[in-house]
Amino acid sequence: MSSVHDVDVLLLLATSLAAKRRPAEPGEIVAAIDLIQGNVPGEEKLSEAFVRLGSHGLLQGNPAGVALTAAAEALIESLPRKAAPAERLFELKGLLANARPAADGVPVVLLAETLRAAILAHRAVAASGARNLLVDKPKPEAGQARPGQRQRKPLGRSPAKARKR
Q1: How confident is residue 4, by pLDDT bands cut at 50, 70 and 90?
Q2: What is the pLDDT of residue 64?
Q3: Structural domain span for residue 105
Q4: Taking Cα atoms as reference points, which of 133, 119, 127, 106 lies closest to residue 51?
């Protein structure tokens, strides 16, 4: 791609996160964007990014939602797995800049109103205190012992052996 927008990279990574086993709906993609970056871009920018990525053959739309194409999945698979989200975004931007997209892609058209409704629904869920299911579980503290396990007493000499000496 000649010029890579930050929204394109963010949308591609969020779609890969939201559409693991089935096409993702707009609300799921918005939740993944919020998880990765912490804030969601405007609906006009997202709508334009969907059209750009679809026309370059990286996203495909169907009635069930939006999914990655094989070319986009190959780019995502080449990213480091244990890297921080910011590092993954940076690596993906470099990969997209060097990629030669397919010219025969079909644009994915999601109306700004649809995206606005998904963003507002996500904000309402976030304000209600419900959990985002895409967030990892918190890790326990290192000093905490596992339940049900006791420390063993140190082995010492038995009183009978001590008397024999």
Answers
A1: confident
A2: 81
A3: 6-128
A4: 106
Contact 156, 64 (CB under 8 A): no
The pLDDT assigned to 152 comes to 65
The token duo for 125 is: 């869920």
The residues with which 24 forms a beta bridge, in sequence order, are: 66
Domain containing residue 73: CATH number: 1.10.10
Per-residue pLDDT band at 21 (split at 50, 70, 90): confident
> How many domains does the chain divide into?
1
Position 37 in a domain: yes
CA 25 to chain centre: 14
Residue 33 lies in a domain: yes
CA–CA distance, 101 with 104 (Å, rounded to integer) = 9
Q: Per-residue pLDDT averaged across 123-134, rounded? A: 71
In a domain, 105, yes or no: yes
Confirm if 15 and 32 have CB atoms less than 8 A apart. yes
* C-beta of residue 12 within 8 angstroms of C-beta of residue 58: yes
